[in-house]
Design a protein that fits this description.
The protein is α+β, with helices and mostly antiparallel strands. The protein contains 6 helices and 5 strands; from the N terminus they run αββααααβαββ.
């Protein structure tokens, strides 16, 4: 799966993650035992393996690390909350997630509950815009 499909950026501060392609890559991935642990582990501090080989640009790091944590074994709401946490760790304050469908308000509430910290979620059809307040980092 190419990085261009997983995320696209028209300019350096706009990030759009393609959640559909992350799920597809997750399905096709040959999972090692460690990959499986990362896929179901809710502790994001552990997503640091091979850190010296990660890209220096936060948006590129986000794409690489997202492939480690997106799992078809958990709900979309949990995966989205994981992406948000990962973006926060990379100091990314605003980004879009292209989804396969529009989330319902109860699903958005589950994402908020899973993420715990304050954030703004705005939905425009199948595109979810995530804004993390700078002071929450």
């Amino acid at each position: 799966m190419s990085d261009k499909k997983l995320a696209s950026a028209g300019h350096s501060d706009y990030i759009c993650l393609n959640y559909i392609d992350f799920l597809a890559a997750s399905c096709k991935k040959r999972w090692s035992f460690v990959d499986a642990i990362y896929g179901v582990m809710p502790i994001f501090g552990l997503v640091t393996r091979n850190s010296r080989n990660l890209p220096q640009v936060p948006s590129e790091r986000l794409k690489v690390l997202a492939l480690q944590i997106i799992s078809t074994q958990v709900s979309d709401e949990i995966n989205i909350a994981r992406l948000i946490t990962l973006a926060e760790q990379q100091h990314i304050e605003k980004f879009d997630i292209l989804l396969p469908y529009t989330l319902s308000e109860p699903q958005l509430d589950l994402v908020r509950q899973e993420y715990v910290k304050p954030l703004t979620l705005q939905q425009h059809d199948d595109r979810l815009t995530v804004s993390i307040p700078a002071w929450s980092h």
